[in-house]
Amino acid sequence: MRFGVALFPSKQLQDWVNSYRKRYDPHYALIAPHLTLVNAFETTEEEAETLARKLRDAAQQHEPFKIRTSKISSFHPVNNVIYLKVEPDDKITDLHKELNDIIDSTGQTYKFVPHITVGQKLSDDEHFDVYGTLKMQGIEHEEEIDRFHFLYQLDNGQWTVYETFRLGKEAE
Amino acid sequence: MRFGVALFPSKQLQDWVNSYRKRYDPHYALIAPHLTLVNAFETTEEEAETLARKLRDAAQQHEPFKIRTSKISSFHPVNNVIYLKVEPDDKITDLHKELNDIIDSTGQTYKFVPHITVGQKLSDDEHFDVYGTLKMQGIEHEEEIDRFHFLYQLDNGQWTVYETFRLGKEAE
């Protein structure tokens, strides 16, 4: 089975991102707006149960943290993904590192750029048009993240949450 | 915000149900196949946090249980919902009752019939056709349920998981 780890921002931010994803992201119906912490990887259900325990322990070692978004950016020319940039800071970078060390996945081939995808799989022309329009918009926004989610993918591509983990000691 | 409580069956069962939902359920893209424990209700985010604590306590008071599916059934003529019937037993009925007592929602107007929706919002003719075909199929299946999910709905109708709760004492 295919698993991944992500965090979902507030409903307010998800609704804002969905207003664009609806038109520009073919994964719109497969998962709610999210920030990927561990890229999709293959494992067995038995192994997932072991990983879930490790992820729960890790969650308790990290305190809730704030994320701050500012501008719309793009991974072009690496790929035509338009995203809402989340300002990197030590807390999210440390969490990302620890979770990826636990999963020990080879899927993390790029440097971690915390982001929430707004559009993807666009042709070069579409990308140019959409990015030209969106990069003016951005959203100055700050909110607290107090949990992350371990998910798995169904055969149709949809993601289902396996378990949520609250950050911090008081979550116990 | 609109919240609800549901459980997701195994990936195997979700994939089977989705093979039909794809054609017969307009909610296909909004949520993965699920069994509703508390119907959608309105509450504030602050109140949801209080409810989450109560749901977590309730989860610890209920042990994991088995669900058994057998046949495809329909709520017609009440409404044209075709569903995979989950055999009712004390464990799921008790959990349903306690969760609804916690939420104290007036949404629960029907007797609890544990089910996983396969098709809905069908015209009478469609319902007659589809039900005629599917009621022969059914799926004899048994599996263990060890968690349930507290969810909220985005403006576009999609559901996002707020938190998962594992059943039983050892979940602590």
Account of the protein in words:
The structure is a homodimer of 172-residue chains. Chain A is globular. In chain A, helix 2 packs antiparallel against helix 3 (90-103). The two termini of chain A are 28 Å apart. The first copy, chain A, has a single domain, classed as Cyclic Phosphodiesterase, Chain: A (Alpha-Beta Complex). Chain A has 172 residues and is α+β, with helices and mostly antiparallel strands. Chain A is built from four helices and eight strands, in the order βαβαββαβαβββ. In chain A, strand 3 (65-74) and strand 4 form a beta hairpin. Chain A binds chain B through residues 1, 8, 11, 14-15, 18, 22, 29, 32, 147, 149, 152, 154-156, 158-164, 166, and chain B through 1, 8, 11, 14-15, 18, 22, 29, 32, 147, 149, 152, 154-156, 158-164, 166. Chains A, B: A motif (HXTX 1) lies at residues 34-37.
Oligomeric state of the chains in view: homodimer
N-C termini distance of chain A: 28 Å
For the biggest β-sheet of chain A, the strand order reads 2-1-7-8
The tally of strands of chain A reads 8
H/E element sequence of chain A: EHEHEEHEHEEE
Helicity level of chain A, as a percent range? 25-40%
Overall outline of chain A: globular
Low-confidence runs of chain A: none
At CATH level 2, the architecture of chain A is Alpha-Beta Complex
CATH superfamily of chain A: Cyclic phosphodiesterase
The top level CATH class name of chain A: Alpha Beta
* Proportion of beta-strand residues of chain A: 25-35%
The biggest chain-chain interface is:
A-B, 23 and 23 residues
How would you classify the helix and strand content of chain A by structural class? Answer: alpha+beta
CATH topology title of chain A? Cyclic Phosphodiesterase, Chain: A
Q: Characterize the biggest β-sheet of chain A.
A: 4 strands, antiparallel
Give the count of structural domains of chain A: 1
Radius of gyration of chain A from the CA trace? Answer: 16 Å
Mean pLDDT of chain A: 92
Number of DSSP helical runs of chain A:
4
